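dumping this here before i forget
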Amino acid sequence: MNHVTLATSSGLVWLTIASHFSAGLIALVAGTIALAVAKGGKLHKQSGIVFTFAMIAAGALAVTLAVIERKTSMIFGGSFVVYLIFTATTTVKPVSWNKRPVEIALMLFAFSFAAAEYYYGSIVWKLPGHVFNGVPAGMMFFLGTIGLLAAVGDLRVLREGSLCGVKRLARHLWRMCFGLFIATGSFFFGQAKFIPAPIRIGPALAALGVAPLVILLYWMWRVRLRRRLTGIVVGSSEPSGAAV
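structure:
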């Protein structure tokens, strides 16, 4: 099937596209608020919950559209979004049921996603311009590397048990930030044509698209390297007095 859009679709397909687009916009707003306010505070938690549900909905709807369009790579991409946000959320708010089988399944998915991205990237690299459907091979290799790092992180959690302190915060922050990057990248790069021409400024859109990656690097430097938690309210599962 050809690429479906709001203009070329109707019925349930149109509703799916509209819902996907709406969920993505909600995720952009909620994610921006969550990044801007004090981490662990009330507004951060509330906006984080909205961001989580919106991103999972957007990812699930993206998978549905990928099935309709018969695009296997997009099925993996939408599923990876759901995976990232789910594992980021359960890092700070663990589920109550027996989660080890689920954690193993999620780890295997992350390894599979990485392998698929490397595979498709190697194929696209052989094409003229190293691009397929607007996606360069380099981006596929990049996403594959992120998937591999996520899978290795899952393996470490399975081996070491529940995380706490700096490791717990870092895992939550980087997965949330990268999930937001997927949303901003998809919108400001992939959907730029829908932005009104007077404000469609290339450098500004590029800056907005990669902003979550810059913020991700900042938080990894601050939390993982400097171990500076000033201004972050750590969850209640941390030792007493850990709110700083």
